[in-house]
Amino acid sequence: MHIIGILGGVAGGKSLVARQLADLGAVVLDADRAGHEVLRLPQVEAAARERWGAVVFGPDGRIDRERLAGVVFADPPAGPREREYLQRLTHPEIAKFLKEQSDAAANSGVSAAVLDAPLILEAGWDKLCEVLIFVDTPRTIRLSRAVGRGWSKEDFEAREGAQKSLDRKRERADVIIDNSGAPEHTRAQIEQFWQSQFG
User: Fold this and answer.
1) How confident is the model at residue 162, as a pLDDT?
2) What is the mean pLDDT of residues 114-141?
3) How far, in Å, CA of 136 to CA of 77, rounded?
4) Where do the domains of the chain lie?
5) How many angstroms separate the CA atoms of 60 and 29, rounded?
């Protein structure tokens, strides 16, 4: 089974591209969903409580992602230090979930899977991928989308600052998809890519 990795900036349309590839027959390996599951593991909850106390837990006693984001995306030096701790804690567990999803897809006879993860390069998951797609979207459009999701400009900049530079992602990619126009324009490029790989 071929694994396609999606790179791009915050709110750049990576999930849109993943969905369009899914429409064409790929299975999506969703690292964000895996991350939700990992934050509910007893050992992760225990480590989080020991590190940060009750501040990152919601009324239901579970880790609250928004509260956790407030800690790990805080200004330097605290934010980057806590984010690195969180990644050391969760990335190995997320990798296990992704491997299980990948194995299940391969066993069902699927020819391609899409890895939709915000930190592919940072986590070293690009090594799992045969092809890396960079979703190229202007910053003004990405910021507008993020604000539309309820983020502040500061939230957007903090998330973006926590990731590898867009230039590094673009250099690492095998294919670049221009997502600055209408969804149909993006879709046409995705279909062309799919045809060239699996047609």
Assistant:
1) 81
2) 92
3) 30
4) 2-198
5) 28
- The CATH H-level superfamily of 2-198 is P-loop containing nucleotide triphosphate hydrolases (3.40.50.300)
Question: What is the three-state SS of 14-62?
Answer: HHHHHHHHHHCCCEEEEHHHHHHHHCCCHHHHHHHHHHHHHHHECCCCC
Per DSSP, the chain holds a count of helices (H) and strands (E) of 10, 5
pTM, entire model: 0.86
Query: What tokens were used for 3?
Result: 């694994």
Query: Taking the CB of residue 63, how many other CB atoms lie within 10 A of it?
Result: 20
Alpha-carbon distance of 57 to 65, in angstroms, equals: 8
- What would the pLDDT profile of 2-60 be if each residue is shown by its tens digit? 999 999 999 999 999 999 999 999 999 988 889 999 999 999 999 999 999 999 999 99
